[in-house]
Write a structure and sequence with these properties.
By secondary structure, this protein is of the alpha/beta class. It contains 18 helices and 32 strands. α13 packs across α17. Bound molecules: 2-acetamido-2-deoxy-beta-D-glucopyranose (NAG) (3 copies). Its EC number is 3.2.1.21.
Length: 838
Amino acid sequence: MLSSTLLLTALAVPAAFAQSNLDWDAAYTKATTMLGKLTLQQKINMVTGVGWQKGPCVGNIAAISSAGFPGLCLQDGPVGVRYASGVTAFPAAIHLGATWDKDLMRAQGVAMGEEFRGKGVNIALAPVSGALGKIPQAGRNWEGYSNDPYHAGVGMTEVITGVQSVGVQACAKHYIGNEQERNRETMSSNIDDRTMHELYLWPFADAAKANVATFMCSYNKLNSSWACDNDYALNKLLKGELGFRGQVLSDWNAKTTTGGATRGLDMTMPGDNFGDNNFVWGQNLLNAVNQGSVSTSRLDDMVKRIFASWYLVGQDQNYPSVSFNSWNNNGGGDVSGNHKELARTVAGDGIILLKNVNNALPLKKPASLAIIGRDAINNPAGINSCTDRACNDGTLAMGWGSGTTNFPYLIDPLTAIRAQAQVDGTTVVTSTTDNASQGASAAQSASTAIVFINANSGEGYLTVQGNSGDRNNLDPWNNGNDLVKAVAAVNSKTIVVIHSVGPIILEQFVDLPNVIAVVWAGLPGQESGNGLVDVLYGSKAPGGKLPFTIAKSPSDYGTSIINGDDNFSEGLFIDYRRFDAQGITPRYEFGFGLSYTTFSFSNLVISYTSTTTGPISSTQNAPGGYPALYEPVATITARVTNTGGVAGSEVAQLYIGLPAGSPSTPPKQLRGFQKLKLASGASGTATFVLKRKDLAYWNTASQRWVVPTGNFNIFIGASSRDIRLQGTMGPSGSTTTTIGGSTSSTTTAQTTTRVTTTPSTTVTTTRTTTAPTTTRTTTVATTTRATTTAVITTTAAPTGGPLQSKWGQCGGVGYTGASVCSPTATCSTLNPYYAQCL
Ligand SMILES: *[C@@H]1O[C@H](CO)[C@@H](O)[C@H](O)[C@H]1NC(C)=O
Ligand SMILES: *[C@@H]1O[C@H](CO)[C@@H](O)[C@H](O)[C@H]1NC(C)=O
Ligand SMILES: *[C@@H]1O[C@H](CO)[C@@H](O)[C@H](O)[C@H]1NC(C)=O
């Protein structure tokens, strides 16, 4: 059974997480000195990759021996060092995101950084927050942490800080608007200014704030001009508004011109067009400089940025030289250290328990187990047999494309379960195909059946089973629905384990009475089976939470792969923002996940310390944008208690709703989360420090973040819909609390009450014992200020706002997703581009 000590000691996070001492000014001083040593031709060479496969790494900048510069090695990617042996195949970013554990994110960043450094890589081409993931079918969503910008921003911050703490330059990519694989190199992403700021730019702002050394611009166009040739995106937004001081490199052969240099691009990669010796910069850029169409001062700025990024993380001091070769998969020895332990911890901690009837899990020494499905075993042809993992035969532990590594080994689920079964004396029968009738015969003979299904996606240059990067649908692959149904038809204890790049539709089997548990095992990397066994057998309680919504129908998402240009007409309303606004009931909402124990929430304390409203600005800019955006303005705490019988973890989540009268905005937006690991009976405090930007919306007219006036709604809960505590904070620092929800989700999924709250219009006193279906917990609310009373002010009743003809939705002031639009409501300001109320 569950060992609380094992869980509580968890992972020893390296102590070397020194606060960032990165100093751009000092880096620029050194860069300027270095620049002075270079000839014009050497400057051109500094900004032009040597050409595809002309060096050991996927991207290479030549050495300049006269200046003592050893050159640059750029290498993929977000799960570890690509094209190398002796490295770790880490859990994918979406799996790390599912842990909601900042310490693990930081630790994986450090560990990946150590391996890149160990191989002599200067620039690790990670992390990813573009695609953000607005389209659930999009092929590369699994390379990022979450489709919520706040969550993605935390992932970016932690991983960048970790990677750079060991001296490796991180690269925030793909900037920006590359939300699907289909037509990614020809389509235009037309994103309105507010949506750009509040969704897509948000995590990149956090990356800049974390002092990321480099950015990679993306393949797509923005408003019909290439992202890597885009003055607005690169100069105005990134280097201007976000105060980014490092260098921007192109995605591999992303379209640009010599004019791209004046529009903000600093380096072309890989230099030529994948080996054709046709260099878009190089001699062409030299000519442009000589003719004056690109100024020498701009060229100097490009070179200084590249050197400053290099000096920023100390790569001029004792940095290892490149010790591997991408093109023959060898060299450099084993740099993986003890990272397999971290890989196993993350593999287990990112697992999300979706359904668990009558404590079906953890397994308690079952007499017999049937292990069913091709996804339970390694690909018989070899774990690395497909180019860049572009096949879906055997257990799925990462997607396909450039964001992959070679597996050094892959612990498949069957191997790990067999090891435990041997200890327990459990008989194991198997059917390791996806053949439904074979699966059913195996299941018939066992007391418990575990069925493995999956869904894969990847980068669009490779097609797998007819899926050209993006998924063709949101169903499990290889007839997974039929396999589960056939097994559940004959076995009353059917457990479904899902490896997937993103949401799949579960409706064909999730409610079947014989499906007693559903385990979301994500994309767990090389330690897949071990991480799974840790959870299935209860050596740790599951603690992952969904980093996306699982819908009942694909159309519920309101976004899908587009042919031609994408106008981003859904605006701010992606994933749970849309489900909340439109009142669509998901199967499992963003932020959801069960445990083997239960948690109560109490003692909401809101301290709103800086109540200045209006546009936010500072006299000077800094990485991430105006420093005033990042100043703390409120501290909110809540008590979380483990009310169940075993140790476990809960992710306390804070969502805000803007005051009534604010521009049309999703009813809830994530603005804080904290994972608490608690022994049975123990309590902890979740502390959320809101920064000014967390309360603001982007005002396109003033081109500023603006903190609106009025009462903000504060929601704290165990998911985006399981809200347990609720309050408001408003002018003069006044705060009120109401009590929402009840005890935690129980482990009996079918009887779980997951309370969905809407902006409250009820009056509630400070102490309430709630919950019709559970009785254990009393939630208590207090306020920080003696002057506030226990009686809440009511927020305005929801009104539909005017009809937005383009979307057929209600919108505008007071918009809460009502299905009936107010005929009298009018827009205070109409956004002409999308016929959307501002
Ligand atoms: C694209 O056009 C829209 C509408 O004019 C504007 O709000 C947005 O800022 C533009 N974005 C870029 C990257 O040019
Ligand atoms: C599934 O297995 C059964 C029994 O072995 C076999 O008769 C059938 O042809 C298989 N189906 C497929 C699609 O391979
Ligand atoms: C996007 O907007 C443009 C300009 O308004 C319009 O011509 C085009 O049809 C729109 N595309 C889609 C897919 O709606």
